[in-house]
Amino acid sequence: MTSPRPRQRFSLDDATPNPADPRPAEHYPLDVTSHAHEEEDDATRAPGLDTALARPRKRRWGLLTLLGGSLALGAVEAGRTLYQATLGGDPLSGAWSALLLLALGLGGSALARELWRLRRLRRHAVLREQLDALPEASAAQAGRLAERLREQLQLDRDDPHWQAFCAAHQPHHDGAETRTLLAHHLLAPRDREARRLISRMSGDTAVMVAVSPMTLVDMLLVAWRNLAMLERITTLYGLELGYASRLRLFRQVLANLAFAGVTEIASEASMELFSMNLASKLSTRAGQGLGIGLLSARLGLRAMRLTRPLPFDDTDNPRLGDLRHELWQRVRRLEESATPPR
Amino acid sequence: MRQTLAREVTNLLERGRDRQLRLAVTGLSRAGKTAFLTSLVNQLRHAGLEARLDLMACAREGRLLGARRVAQQDLAVPRFPYDEAMAALDETPPRWPDPTRGISELRLQIRYRPGRHGLFGMMNADSATLTLDLFDYPGEWLLDLPLLEHDFLSWSERQQAALTPARRELAADWLEAVAELTPDSTADEAELAAIAERYAATLRAAREAGFADLQPGRFLLPGDLAGAPVLQFFPLPGVGEADRQALEALPEDSVYHTLSRRFAHYQQHVVKPFYREHFRRFDRQIVLVDVLGALNAGPERFEDLSRALSTLMRSFQYGKRSLVSRLFAPRIDRLAIAATKADHVTPEQHANLVTLLEALLAEPIQDLRFADIPVKALSLASIRATQSREVERQGRRFPALRGTTQAGEEALLFPGEVPAQIPETDFWQRQGFAFEHFRPLPRDARGDALPHIRLDAALDWLIGDKLS
């Protein structure tokens, strides 16, 4: 057992310096090596509340084991058959098992690719979350995130947009300022491109629906066009979609559309009314086309909002209203050319 | 006369169309007003070419075409000495522009392309212009504005309250002289002049010691009034509101009445015209504060600066703009407060600098929030004088600055941390602050725009909405 600490008396003025005190000035000799201001690498951030509150990640271990196990066992089985067929001189069964091996190999690589792409989608979501918190980030963190965004968008270091960003970015810019610059230099060109894409493809869909004679064909057409649009938007924002990731994203977009739909319709009620007003001026088919086109455009905008690495802020949020006019023009032009003026 | 009328009508039209802005650059002496104006003109002049104005939306989108100095409104006021200031910065070794000794004006015509509608709209091909009126003045005179709320008696009372122990020490000479004076004695011109001169010396000494809340401002910088009897008054110590009736009853040639008359004359004929002609018509305002200088000077000066700024900001009219108020009674509807000389600390200290600035201006900010006027606090350096570097020590990297100190010596240093809140009094005695002053960076090429920190963000906040 330790004895109790003896009495000790401190002089009033030898208190240890308060650790909260600001650091005093410090002079360095001029010949000390100094570096241009670079982002120092500080410890990675602890996972925040957001990640803790996010939907728990489902790992489908059962499905994966089943698939992986059958692939592995099948490969072993086929290998053995092939070996015995070569020994036993049965070329037909040997060829079959070789074919099976090839098929298993293809299936395995497809599975691996899917998994890898799903992983990319998840990484993208994480990056998105981090970039969302950019205004609170320090200058060093902001610089690192910018670098990761560049990688995600697959830009080279000598890409003119990245170069423009580097020229504009100064060491004293904080998170919010870096965000503004990133949005302008790296994402604005992609936004414009995505917007052109949505406008063109939803217009195409509208026209197709307006001229197609059969409902079933319509449905197939719309589904195909929308999926194609989604894929191209995600590619623009640096995401490569596999089958599963596409499905997941599509589900997300639809869920988002359903949830956001109510509030958005309430806020854009006048616009909806206006569109209906317009649609009533068209023939039934053209009206349907316009409706489908609007829905498709809305889907595209949702996908854009969900996949853009830097979430939109209120001012630059793309709105359906911007696209409506163009859609209307296209359908209208179609209608006019179909019914010759009397 | 006809010309004046035509000019007035044009101005009125321009204001009606909201194509004219008057920017108030407010700051006490040595806060960096002249540097701010010089850099502002320089950046806008070089906009779209060499100037880096990436935080200004209009410049970032390539819509800002540039600016030009045009003939100013009032021909009787000298032009802002932009060329002289640039010449000072171009000297070898470069030096800061001379402090302002009088009023000057400048009118800038900014040309830009109006923006697109919405995110994706078409680019507008036509260019438009915005006229920006700027105005420079000695910061010392600014402190006269709060004087308008007082009469001689209440002013005297307030000046006594402002005499903190440190200032009382500086004013010892004057206090001794004025103690022998009684308010009811007959005024002696020569004696009053001598005491007033001592009072002026007191104010000058206090300014040297870093105090800011100094009235009347013309005592520090008389301009063309040097030696006139209007500048020969001073507050009477030891009088208060309670003595008002007794003092009023004194004969006309008593010391009290003579001083009171001079004070009233100073108010009516010096401060009021200055206020009426230059300070009433503002649309936007930027308040520049030298936070680092105040930190260097110590707690008492810090308090003093805070008090001076909050009384000062009461002299401006804030409010929402409407067509009518825009035409006839312009009010400041948007405001930036800036901690200047941000280049004198390392970049990661900027956040603390802004927090400290907000603490310093807490009271005016509360009033502005109540009036629903948008305020933005930022740290800026109108003309950047240092380069941000990093020094490696014991395997870790520390931020540092490289520049030439005011003494002319090249230095690589860490200037010290900026506290996030006003430190306690005993910290100043224990450690204190010693932020170094730097010379402007020598410029490689004459044609280049001046380097700056966040001047673009300030401009975007102040005039960006009119350039969209």
How would you sum up this structure, described in words?
- The complex is a heterodimer of chains A (about 350) and B (about 475).
- Chain A is mainly α and about 350 residues long.
- Among the domains of chain A are: about 70-120; about 190-340, no CATH class.
- Chain A contains eleven helices and two strands.
- In chain A, helix 6 runs antiparallel to helix 10.
- Chain A starts with about 25 loop residues before the first strand and ends with a helix.
- The model of chain A is unreliable at about 40-55 (pLDDT under 50).
- Chain B folds into two domains: about 1-140 and about 280-385 and about 445-465, Rossmann fold, CATH 3.40.50; about 145-275, no CATH class.
- By secondary structure, chain B is of the alpha/beta class.
- In chain B, strand 8 (about 385-395) and strand 9 (about 395-405) form a beta hairpin.
- The two termini of chain B are about 35 Å apart.
- In chain B, the strands form two sheets. In chain B, strands 2-3-4-1-5-6-7 form a seven-stranded mixed sheet, with helices on both faces. In chain B, strands 8-9-10 form a three-stranded antiparallel sheet, with no helix packed on it.
- Chain B has helices at about 1-15, 35-45, 55-60, 80-90, 140, 150-160, 165-170, 170-180, 190-210, 245-250, 255-280, 290-295, 300-315, 325-330, 350-360, 360-370, 425-430, 455-465, and strands at about 20-25, 65-70, 105-110, 130-135, 285-290, 335-340, 375-380, 385-395, 395-405, 410-415.
- Chain B is built from 18 helices and ten strands.
- Classes of the chains: A mainly alpha (about 350), B alpha/beta (about 475).
- Chains A and B meet through strand 1, strand 2 and helix 6 of A and strand 8, strand 9 and strand 10 of B.
- Strand 1 (about 25-30) of chain A pairs antiparallel with strand 10 of chain B.
